[in-house]
Specification:
The protein is α+β, with helices and mostly antiparallel strands and about 80 residues long. It has one domain. Helices cover about 25% and strands about 25% of the residues. The protein is built from 2 helices and 5 strands. A 5-stranded mixed sheet has the order 3-2-1-4-5. It is globular, with a radius of gyration of 12 Å. It starts with 5 loop residues before the first strand and ends in a 6-residue tail after the last strand. The model has no long low-confidence stretch (mean pLDDT about 90).
Amino acid sequence: MDKPDVVIRNEGSVVLLEPQSEQARDWLDENIGQDNGYQPYWPTAVCESRYVEEIIHGMFQDGLVIEVNGRTIVDMQPA
């Protein structure tokens, strides 16, 4: 299994998107940006949970490998 490019952590009221590769850091710079809202942990992006599904979809479209809760996600189809 590929190493994840991004690790997603649900912290309750916010979700953290932690880049693990240069490709993921570039993706976050281009699609979210350090100046987009409150980003105190950049390059880890902070977002509201309501936006995560759309962000994950965009990351998949651009070929990033994503890990959530220690599990690598291979697609967004329900199990």
